[in-house]
Design brief:
The protein is α/β, with parallel strands linked by helices. The protein has a domain of 214 residues: 3-Layer(bba) Sandwich (FAD/NAD(P)-binding domain). It has eleven helices and 20 strands. The strands form four sheets. It has an eight-stranded mixed sheet with strand order 6-7-5-15-16-17-14-18, with helices on both faces. The protein has a six-stranded mixed sheet with strand order 9-3-2-13-20-19. The model has no long low-confidence stretch (mean pLDDT 92).
Length: 430
């Protein structure tokens, strides 16, 4: 019977990051993944990392902390995970476009709040937008420039964590292996190990639940009700056409409004099809010459099926902000699900009522950014070392002691029904 210091369940961004930082603390780790490394959410996303597309406060400060770790990783890891830089070796940066006075006012408030936190972020004029992105539309009101945000190849980061962790000799990886039960002490509820679908029992006094959208299924094995739901997104890929954007991510400011349900505070000037599918633009021309265009935020259960009308809506937003996109052919599209925690913050901590059980899930669309800081925090929780992130308590499981999970679920269901009703009415007119 195999024994380890820690079992990490989940071979995506959070699981591999946790495994890496735990091995750096000298802990013997078993990483268990039911499919393969980077098989799930992390391989169905665009790979942008930064602090700017997060709510000012604990959300954006997590981003800042993680970006510092990414900067260390790109300089010390042997595995190339394609961290994007400009000709000076600095991060490539993000650009946000504002097309209404409401968006300009919201952006100004966000910039002011994030600057107070130490995030390098600026409002820019239409002329400055054109200097940053020469192919963008000419009728925009202005935007934001975030020079320190960057991008990585998302599915390569987990492989980088695994390769670096294996150098210590302290990591074993079990792929195509599913955890079907968690063994607990009948008196204390402390975890003691797991049982796999292969009938094998693996012992460990510490278990990390890093299963993203599937974290609630693992949580149920120890009696936890985890408020995480899958939130669907979709991306469209064009033919090779060179630089439409300047190899950096560009977003409409509506991305931020949609992500945090701020749409109702000010009407976005968007076509009905775009509204029906809750679409807002993120776009970049990658290093291969293809342009990636997204995306949407919808609740579709666990389906990752691409939808043609979402592709149309994404194309509309791409053309609106980069008119030359209208001449490009689409070569493929893909969907994915994000682990959306119902209070819009991830869960990263120990679980007091289940000794030895740790949570690293619920990062929604921020998982690529927050992998390193999440892994670092998990290693500190497991080893009992001081937590280096000063706002760690705000993303701890303990916050749900004073929250009504049923009410959170009811709110999410109401939001979903509202979006579905908008979709139904709009599509009936089209």
């Amino acid at each position: 019977m195999k024994s380890y210091d820690v079992i990490v369940i989940g071979g995506g961004m959070m699981g591999t990051a946790s495994a890496y930082y735990l091995t750096q603390e000298g802990m013997k780790v078993c990483l268990i993944e039911r499919d393969d490394i980077a098989f799930g959410t992390v391989s169905h996303t665009d790979g942008y990392i930064g602090a700017s597309e997060k709510e000012p406060g604990v959300d954006s400060m997590q981003g800042m902390a993680s970006m510092k770790l990414y900067d260390e990783m790109r300089k010390t890891f042997d595995y190339d995970f394609e961290y994007s830089t400009n000709e000076n070796g600095d991060p490539i940066g993000f650009v946000y476009f504002c097309e209404s006075e409401f968006e300009m006012e919201m952006a100004k408030k966000q910039v002011a709040e994030n600057q107070k936190l130490g995030i390098e972020q600026y409002m820019v004029s239409v002329q400055e937008l054109r200097e940053l992105e020469p192919n963008c539309a000419t009728d925009l009101l202005g935007g934001m420039w975030v020079p320190k945000d960057a991008a990585v190849c998302p599915f390569k980061v987990p492989f980088a964590f695994v390769q670096e962790a294996r150098k210590t000799g302290l990591l074993d990886v079990m792929t195509r292996t599913e955890v079907v039960d968690i063994i607990q002490d009948p008196n204390t509820k402390a975890v003691q190990g797991v049982v796999t679908d292969k009938g094998e029992t693996i012992n460990a006094p510490n278990i990390v639940n890093a299963c993203g959208c599937w974290a609630p299924f693992i949580g149920a094995m120890v009696g936890m009700e985890i408020p995480i739901e899958p939130r669907f997104g979709q991306l469209t890929i064009t033919e090779k056409a060179g630089k439409i954007t300047q190899n950096r991510l560009c977003m409409e400011y509506g991305y931020f409004l949609t992500k945090f349900f701020h749409d109702g505070e000010g009407e976005r000037p968007i076509p009905d099809l775009v509204k029906a599918y809750n679409v807002c633009l993120n776009i970049t021309s990658d290093l291969t010459g293809n342009t990636v265009i997204g995306g949407c935020r919808l609740f579709r259960g666990f389906s990752i099926k691409s939808e043609y009308k979402i592709m149309q809506a994404c194309a509309m937003r791409g053309i609106r902000f980069f008119p030359m996109v209208k001449d490009l052919n689409c070569i493929r599209a893909f969907g994915g699900i994000r682990p959306f925690c119902l209070d819009q913050l991830p869960i990263v901590s120990d679980v007091e009522e289940v000794p030895g059980f740790f949570m690293a899930a619920g990062h929604e669309g921020d998982g690529i950014t927050l992998g390193p800081i999440t892994g670092k925090l998990i290693s500190q929780y497991v080893t009992g070392k001081p937590l280096e992130f000063e706002l760690a308590h705000e993303i701890a499981w303990s916050r749900f002691k004073n929250k009504d999970i049923a009410a959170l679920k009811a709110k999410e269901e109401a939001n979903t029904r509202a979006l579905q009703e908008i979709e139904r009415k709009i599509l009936a007119r089209l």
